[in-house]
Amino acid sequence: MKLKSFRDADLAGKRVLTRVDFNVPIQDGRVADDTRIRAALPTIERLVKLESRIILCSHLGRPKGEIHEELRLAPVAPVLEQLLNTYLARNNIEPRRVVALDDCIGEGIQKAVDEANARDVLLLENLRFHAGETANDPQFAAQLAALADAYVSDAFGTVHRAHASTEGVAHLLPAHAGYLVAEEVEALEKVAHEPARPFVIILGGAKISGKIDVLTGLLPRADTVMIGGAMANTFLKAQGIGVGASLVEDEMLGTAQQMLALAMQHGTELLLPFDLVVTDSLDPPGGASTVSAKSIGAHDIVVDIGERTRERYRDEMRRARTVFWNGPVGIFEVEQFSHGTMSIAHALANAHNTAYTVVGGGESVAAVNKAGVIGRIHHVSTGGGASLEYVAGKELPGIKVLQA
What we know:
By secondary structure, the protein is of the alpha/beta class. The protein has 16 helices and 17 strands. The strands form 4 sheets. A 6-stranded parallel sheet has the order 5-6-4-1-7-8. Strands 11-10-9-15-16-17 form a 6-stranded parallel sheet, with helices on both faces.
């Protein structure tokens, strides 16, 4: 897929509205994880070099069209300023000031943009304080577009949503893909189209319900799909296996049966856990024991995959030539329930020399960070839902508008 890249665009001295993903955790008014801010630095640096007037926009959380003080982007500004100036100093570029504005549209914001120092980097307020953002309201998109001469999309984690700042604005301004979006598409193309085989997918997390379309798209194209996490409970129960007091989506049992049938129809091996780690309490975490998948007690809570399952999943990854992973296979935040997820992370890293490996965003990124193996994964996506949908072959609105 060829995108309109901002590498080829004439953006020198122009006002550039840049969609970034600063949806970062804020704790006690401070940024708790700056990974997504760092991911935006290469694109911002290039705009600085072009002496563009940079206007950054992002969402934070889900305020649903209302102002929530704890979801303001102001805490991001000083972190971005420090990271950006450290980044710029490596190339002997003079520092920039990051200015957080108190809204993202309106006469006051238009005036602030018009009067801003050309060397300032402006950070608009949380886009989702306005309902028009998620509704892709044409008027809201037009007000955003009025701030700039051109648009750069660099928030891959949002391109699967047809929102005003990801899709609407791109119809109103010359639109280009930033470094991050271009890199994501290039990496995921290797998985989405003609992956080297065997093509193995590991899917975890809590629910099937958010991944139905993705599962439908992936199952016919993979050689092996390995399931873990709480979503495995629903698959097991759909096969008539009791899962005790574990999290399960009873309303999705029919869908799970359909997915099992779809895998069989296309000759895809769909692997479910053979053994599982269970506990009798999550709050506080109780003692862990391992049982056969067919021997889960009435009061047991499934919290991880067992050692036999880990070994089988590792074997599949050793044979693979392309591996895509999305979602933890246990409650990895709790040390005694983290062994399955850590096993997957290390097996993925060990496959570096024999397979093209991709981790698809969210908790999986946190897991490879915790395992200390992020540097041995070929591509770590910044977008969980977006990467899943792209690999499954779905058309992403925020990518479609950037196609050359």
